[in-house]
Amino acid sequence: MKFTGFEMRRITLPLVSPFTTSFGTQTERHAIVLRAVSDGADGWGECVALADPVYSPEYIEGAHHVLSTYLLPRLLAAGDITAQQVTPLLHGVVGHRMAKASVEMAVLDAELRATDTSLASYLGATVDRVPSGVSVGIMPTIDDLTHAVGSYLSDGYQRIKLKIKPGWDVEPVSAVREQFGYSFGLQVDANTAYTLSDARQLKKLDAFDLLLIEQPLGEEDIRQHAELARMLDTPICLDESIVSAEAAADAIALKATTVINVKPGRVGGYLEARRIHDIARANGIAVWCGGMLETGIGRAANAALAALPGFTLPGDISASARFYETDITEPIVLEDGFITVPRGPGIGVTPIAAELDRVTTSTQWITA
Ligand code: SMG
Ligand code: MG
User: Fold this and answer.
1) How many angstroms does the Cα of residue 153 sit away from the middle of ligand 1?
2) Residue nearest atom 9 in ligand 1 by C-alpha distance
């Protein structure tokens, strides 16, 4: 396809409640919505970089800059392209995977819409709905936490993930198990907040039959994760560390991870995400789809990815309402604990013009 331009919108969506992780509290989601305009259909992409470089080196202002200055001009200069060519074309720019992922997503969506194919069937989805999990932030008190967990369980969420950090780990997990029992999947996510010297504390989590502990140590601590994995019964799941299929293959080979959180943004796009799924599956490693507080655009696309056969654990793909009062697409909804895999052309959802306008804080066009 030949792309004539990209519309980049900066958007701000208020969260229904503050979301606290080991690296800070968010009260609104800042994102970039990208529209690829072509000689065929238009395509939509979303950049999942956070406002600040606290989860990974990328942040929204930087993503905007690299998109407008480097990535989109290179793509527009390339002429006729396919989605498969986006990553190789942008290879000369180092890093910036979340920014690159948004470009590939918009191009892929346009391509699939033009051929009336859904992202789900293009990727190789084998199910029509995916089990839904919810990520629960660090709360001011244990009471606040159990109240939130109780309400998500009554919504029907099949799995609960608790954010943890030093000082907020064994106590919240124990309180949730005590109050709600063992009949649902429970896991924790530290977002790199620990070091190997915390192994004894983390070992205490073994008592609560957790599905996994996500990214306890630093992004680059692959060997130390392997050491920790030998000490714990709870499976280690890497998130931040897995930035590519190569990183996934290495972490698996080094036994640093027995489960992988796949996030398309973190790894540079849905095609790389599928590669990680394939590598993990070939190695008997379970994967699940992570979340970055996506709008309906990313949420719909993540549901398509999570429908691949290696995604054997519930993902962080919750309903739009978990974070947003009003989404920019038709809301993604929870039905009996599942999210329906969109089967329309491309990502299967389109932003509602008035809603998108309402949350847009600035718009920039990059043209050929
Ligand atoms: O989209 O449901 C979601 C958020 C899931 O906890 C979530 N994401 O490390 O996995 C993770 C975090 C990254 C974003 S925290 C602001
Ligand atoms: Mg995580």
Assistant:
1) 18
2) 191
pLDDT tens per residue across span 156-205: 999 999 999 999 999 999 999 999 999 999 999 999 999 999 999 999 99
Q: Which fold has domain 3-116+350-367?
A: Enolase-like; domain 1 (3.30.390)
Atom in ligand 1 nearest the alpha carbon of residue 317: 2
Architecture (CATH level 2) of domain 120-340: Alpha-Beta Barrel (3.20)
What integer pLDDT is reported at residue 368 of this predicted model?
87
Q: With a cut of 50, which residues of the chain have pLDDT below it?
A: none
Helix (H, G, I), strand (E, B) or coil at 159: strand
DSSP string, 126-146: --SEEEBEEEE---SSHHHHH
The reported pTM is: 0.98
- Residues annotated as catalytic are 163, 263
Residues with CB under 6 A from ligand 1: 19, 21, 26, 50, 55, 135, 189, 191, 239, 290-293, 316, 318
